[in-house]
UniProtKB/TrEMBL annotation:
GO biological process: tRNA processing
SUPFAM superfamilies: PHP domain-like
Predominant place of localization: nucleus
Listed name of the protein: PHP domain-like protein
Length: 307
């Protein structure tokens, strides 16, 4: 399964032209064989607006699709916060209602101090770096290793390399530095394509990854396995407290899972309207009591034989 976790969302989504261009990009991703796409909304400064991303319903691909069947692509929402001031509170936590409305959260640091803060403490899923231009800081082993331990991934966007040659040289140089520091771990490759012509197929990206210093298997993981890990990390961050403890109502348990709350075959679990479980003892019939006594006698005889 191939992922593209950075497809820029239109700044004015109400305009029909921008919606048409976005649909073209998604249609091309489906044709290339992608199964998951994330619409990216970039914010600079504080978060003061609600989630503007509206997902399309379904896609009927071109006649090139097998059997002419309608193909669907999983659509996710993503926010990328450009952090310029380390002392400012950007509200990057799961308790923020605006942040929790997005499926994936990414942060883009602008200096070394913010980069260390993002890698070490902030509740994000992706660290996005401006690879198409000269980075204002060096990528060091310390903060990168801390981010890898926390399950945070680093992003390489390939579209700037297609737009002009200067950005291409800078992107390849920065990507090689990142691959060298991370040893190829916790890296994802995304498009950040503003037009359909900037998109590339999965195996073209694998070839690009080999130029960045990866082998083919490692480059393929950057658009498949690693991206799936980002999505799972985001789900864990949203549904747990600091990715440690999760809370679920007892009413969500299946009948064969009632043992988790102390219920067994002799008990029946009932859930009241507040989601609390009440366990009621069921009186066994005479036949059940005799059957239980026979089972106990068999167990006692087996224990005596073993002894």
């Amino acid at each position: 399964m191939f992922y593209d976790l950075n497809l820029p969302y239109p700044t004015q989504p109400n305009l029909a032209q921008q919606q048409t261009e976005l649909r073209k990009r998604v249609d091309l991703l489906i044709k290339f064989g992608y199964q998951v796409v994330a619409y990216n909304h970039t914010v600079t400064g504080k978060l003061d607006k609600a989630n503007p991303i509206h997902k399309f319903e379904t896609y009927n691909n071109s006649p090139d699709s097998p059997s002419g069947q309608q193909q669907k692509i999983e659509q996710l929402s993503r926010i990328t916060v450009v952090i310029e001031d380390a002392s400012q509170n950007y509200g990057l936590s799961s308790t923020n209602s605006i942040i929790s409305s997005y499926d994936i959260v990414a942060a883009q640091p602008t200096n070394e101090k913010i980069f260390q803060n993002v890698c070490g403490t902030l509740e994000v899923d992706i660290v996005s770096l401006e690879m198409g231009s000269r980075l204002p800081f060096y990528i060091k082993h310390g903060p990168v290793g801390l981010a890898i331990e926390r399950g945070v991934y680093f992003e390489i966007c390939y579209a700037p390399a297609i737009r002009d040659s200067a950005s291409r040289r800078q992107l390849i140089s920065n990507a090689q530095s990142l691959v060298r520091v991370t040893r190829g771990k916790n890296i994802i490759i995304t498009s950040e394509a503003q037009r359909a012509m900037e998109l590339r197929g999965p195996y073209d990206i694998v070839n690009l990854g080999t130029i960045m210093g990866m082998n083919q298997a490692m480059a393929k993981d950057c658009i498949s396995t690693n991206c799936r890990a980002v999505v799972m990390h985001a789900i864990t961050r949203r549904n747990t407290h600091r990715a440690v403890v999760s809370f679920e109502p007892i009413s969500s348990l299946k009948p064969n899972e009632l043992w988790k709350v102390g219920s067994d075959k002799k008990n029946t679990g009932k859930t009241d309207f507040k989601g609390k479980s009440t366990v009621k003892r069921v009186r066994l019939s005479k036949d059940d009591e005799e059957e239980e006594e026979e089972e106990n006698e068999v167990e006692i005889s087996q224990d005596m034989e073993l002894s």
